[in-house]
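Lecture notes, unit on protein representations.

Consider one protein chain, 617 amino acids long.
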Amino acid sequence: MNIRKSGSIVLLGIFAASVFSGCGKTIDETGNTTVTGETSAEFTLPTETSAPDPITPVEPKTFEDVYGNQLMSYLNHQYYFDGEPVSLQESNFYFINAFLELSSDANMGYYPVTPSGGIDLAAELEVEIDDYDTYGDYFVKYAENALEMSLTLCSYAKANDVPLSEDTKLAIDNMLDNIRYGSAANAGMSLDDYLQLYYGPGTDEATFRKILERYYLADAYSDKYCEEYPFSDDQIRTPYIRYALFYAPESADQDTKDQAYQAAINMKDSCNSLSELKSLAQSAYENGIVREQGDSAAFTSELSEYPELWDWTFEEERKEGDIEVIYEPSVGYYVIGYLGIKDQITYVPYVRYALFQPKDIDQASLTDAYIAAKAMKDACGSISDLTGLAETAYKNGEVLDYGDILVTKGQLDKNFEDWAYDENRTDGELDIIYSPDFGYFVMGYIRTEKQISGLLTDIAMKDLTNIALEEANSGVHDFHTDDEYLPAPAAPTATPVPEIELTDDGTEETVLNTEATEASAPVAQPQQNGSTKTADVLVVVFFTLAGVAIAAIIAVLIYSAVNNRIKSSGIPHDDPDDNADETENDSGEDREDGSDEDDESEEDGDEDDEDNEDNED
């Protein structure tokens, strides 16, 4: 059975990992970094004798330096949507992003790659797929789908009077300033020159702003769609299971079945709690003993494909903490544990803060930090004053960090969370709290916000995906270009086309899917002052602003995202807190990518498993 990942897997993951590689940080709408549980490691400067020779980074000078010699021939094609011309810069924006996505896949071995790290658009397809002769043909369709879906969502926003919020406009202003005074300044370039280098000729601040506004207008509509989606009671409150699969299908020989059964029984007998099942399953997976392991929401259609598991999960007498071995003829023996019912809609505190960190570990520094924090709190006539005072103090180097953040349990400092979740909190309340790890926080309680889990967001987004794709396929919107695409020039060095692999059932697996998207990375990564990546513009674009549907533009391409790319047997698993991109969003919550190996967000809940309490953080 195919693993079906959620629609939130987009550009965010790799960009966040490459640029914001530290753990426990989030980014708020001001572009600030929020420390959420890690203290800085100590370091010592190297001595003169041990210091390496400085390496001068290679600066890109032209668009071709960044993307290679093939991409430019695919840009500047005039598209039309419902009779209106689409700006060349906007269509280029999506073609460049598509190139980055596919180039990331090329570097993982799915497509042929050029020496510069981009997908080889001139390479010929060795298998017959639709009407594509080259990877360039496939690339055009892929990018066109992304552009058309964006335009379609913008049309939905217009038809439903969904505006671009003032907060989003301000966030875009801040984002452009961050690029102007950060990445561009570090490269010794103006903002316009920097944008043209990475997004092609004609992309200046004004045009880029319009592109971003339309991008986030589509996102705003997706956000509204998710908020208003009529989820069923079974979807909002659903059982979860934890499982490990010992692969031994009905077609396997008897020895294989017997060994799998005994191994499953041994694992079950070794488990005194669901937490132990998690640990044993992960270890067995890492050692290649089990085929799949993880947690899964029971209402997903995938579980319904396994009648024995479905029946066991929904038995009336089922209680949290139950563990059993169940045989599914199509795949083998499951060790399955019942995690209980989990709410997919929660209400989370939204707070404003400014952090005063002591300059040293002595009492005098601690006292100074407290005095400064109290002075700021006393100067606030209301919670709205806190933002301006904190911003000024941050620029003056008086506070380490500030911003607004959704406080998801298990993600932030304990004292920070305890204050936010105090049932006596009132809107607009101001206070000072102390964290031994960080210092003094001036806190302001803004409000409580409804939070929809990534699992529910996926359901709503898949429905929106179907609607948008149906319109696209039926020609409801007139989307076209009259410009002809010429073949891409040959890459400097010929590259092999990836081989087609066989799946478990012996059929050929084709990775090409024009409605697919996967986490992507920049093609070229020239350094600026030794630290800034090529993807800085995209990092800010796709990582800074908020929203449960931050990936909405490209999410409409993911309905069958990895079905043709990743093949496996077993139950797909969705984390109950899987909300937004394989990365963190600015609400301070981790976005899970669904992988078995990386499920850190459940650690806190596992402690509760042992007491048969609710596993949710």
